[in-house]
Amino acid sequence: MFGAIVRRYDLANHMLSCGVDVYWRKRAADIVFSWHPGKIADLATGTGDLALALQKELPDAKVTGVDFVPEMLELAQKKGVRQTILADAMMLPFADASFDCITIAFGLRNMENWRGALVEMSRVLRRNGHLLVLEFSLPTGPILRPIYRFYLHHCLPFLGSVLTGKKSAYDYLGHSIEQFPSGRAMVDLIEASGFEHATLQPLTRGIVTIYTAQKSQAGPS
Questions:
Q1: Number of neighbouring beta carbons within 10 Å of residue 202
Q2: For range 135-145, the mean pLDDT
Q3: Are 52 and 81 in contact (CB under 8 A)?
Q4: Among 50, 80, 160, 206, which is least packed, fewest CB within 10 Å?
Q5: What is the Cα–Cα distance from 174 to 3, expressed in whole angstroms?
Q6: Whole-structure pTM value
C-alpha cells in the first residue's frame, strides 16, 4: 500500500494536513535536540521527513532512517537522508543498546503488534535512552471531534484518492487512527513495554500527540 503511493506521498501529507505536518516534525526534532543524542534510529522513516528534520537540528548526530518499503527509502535517500536501512521495525537488525534515541512518526499505528514494536525499540536503546513517538490521535473537544471524524472518514479519503489515486490507503488511515490507543492509554502501553517517565503532548488541538519516555531499567512488565 505504501509503495503504491510513494510518488505523491509527500504532496498528499502536506496538502491533507494544510502544511501543519512540517510544524509537528519540527516540534519533535526540537524535543530530541534537548536530549543531545549521538545515535538516533528513525523507524518507519518513510520518505525521511523526520530524519531530515533531525539531521538539521543535530548535524553531528548519526541519524539512521529505517523502513521496510524500498521505494520509500529510495526517495528518502534522494532527499538527503544520509543513512538508511531496509528493515522491519518488529525485528530490528541492530544489537542491544545500539542507540541513544529512537523516534517514530506516524508509524507505530501501522505495526503488526504495538507492544511488540515498543519492546523491540527498548531493546536497541542504550541505558537511559529516549523514545519519541509522534502519532495521530483524536481531538477531545465535543465540537472539534465530530468535525474531525467527518473529515477523517469522508473528506480525507476523497482528497487522498484525487492526490494519489489510492482511496483505500486513506480509508485505512481513518480506521487505523480510530483503533489506535491515545492519551493515557498510549502512555500506559509505553510504560508496560520497557519504558518509564512517559509523557504526552497534544498538538493542534489533539489531532496529533507527541509521546516521550526513557528506557526502563526494569524492562517490560
A1: 15
A2: 89
A3: yes
A4: 80
A5: 19
A6: 0.90
pLDDT the model gives residue 10:
61
How far is the C-alpha of 47 from the C-alpha of 9, rounded, in Å? 8
Q: What's 220's DSSP letter?
A: -
- Its CATH architecture, for the domain 3-215, is 3-Layer(aba) Sandwich (3.40)
Q: Where are the beta strands (DSSP E) in 145-207?
A: 195-203
Consecutive H or E run containing 213: strand 208-215
One-letter amino acid identity for 80?
Answer: G
Cα–Cα distance measured from residue 176 to residue 197, given in angstroms and rounded to the nearest whole number = 26
Are the CB atoms for 4 and 166 separated by under 8 Å?
A: yes
Rg (CA), the chain: 17
* Cα distance between residue 205 and residue 145, in whole Å: 10
pLDDT of residue 187: 98
Residues with Cβ < 8 Å from 87, sequence gap 6 or more?
66, 67, 68, 93
- Among residues 181, 176, 202, 152, the alpha carbon closest in space to that of 16 is found at 152
β strands within 44-194, DSSP E: 62-67, 83-86, 99-105, 125-136
